[in-house]
Amino acid sequence: MFNIIIRDTYEELSAEAFKPVKEVLKKEHPVLGLATGSSPVGLYKEMIRDHKENGTSYQNVVTFNLDEYVGIPQNHAQSYYTFMHENLFNYIDCPESHIHVPEGFRKDEEQACVDYENALKQYSVDIQVLGIGRDGHIAFNEPGTPFTSETHLMDLTEETRTDNARFFDGDINQVPKKAITQGLASIMRAKKIILIATGENKAQAVYDMIKGPKSTNCPASILQDHADVRVYLDKAAASKLD
Ligand code: GLP
What we know:
alpha/beta
């Protein structure tokens, strides 16, 4: 079931998205599912602000990220491991041993997927943060990915690599061609999901996710089957909805 929250500014949207996260952080052992991309950065700023101002502790928090590029070192400037440290982990007190990001740097990529899914299954994610790609992908589950998928290797589409080239000096040739990603079934196990999308270029994907047929053409449409999804939109991203 979708609960749709529309706000004028990205700051307001991020503050709203932080509310259910803050609720989860009151638990004794919270498990957070985290995402990269520009959409959740405002939420991460809220988490950092709250940690500084209110002393909210992440000592007992365990985190699982959605995805990681394959074939670049963990400490590469554009790895999702680096992104998460620069945008969140370096500013809160979550122990490094509690942080999980798929190990795209490993030689045995298939085994890295199996190991990640097994680690994830030891926990129950209390809240999963998501963005959405222009083609309706969530994490790196591109159109056509089966709804039953668990952590797997994904060949990235040209569109996704073009979108992400902005992080690689605008050069698509530098964008990795493959990623390790949690599957759609892995994501669906989370108890609660919050998805953040802004801008007109997300409007069609948002519409297809909510109003379109449930189809692997729009991977995010699987969320129609989830009991608790909150969608945080600005007016542009919501513009195709009624
Ligand atoms: C990448 C990530 C996704 C993210 C998407 C949208 O492909 N793997 O998890 O949702 O980008 O990114 P942005 O929020 O920057 O638009």
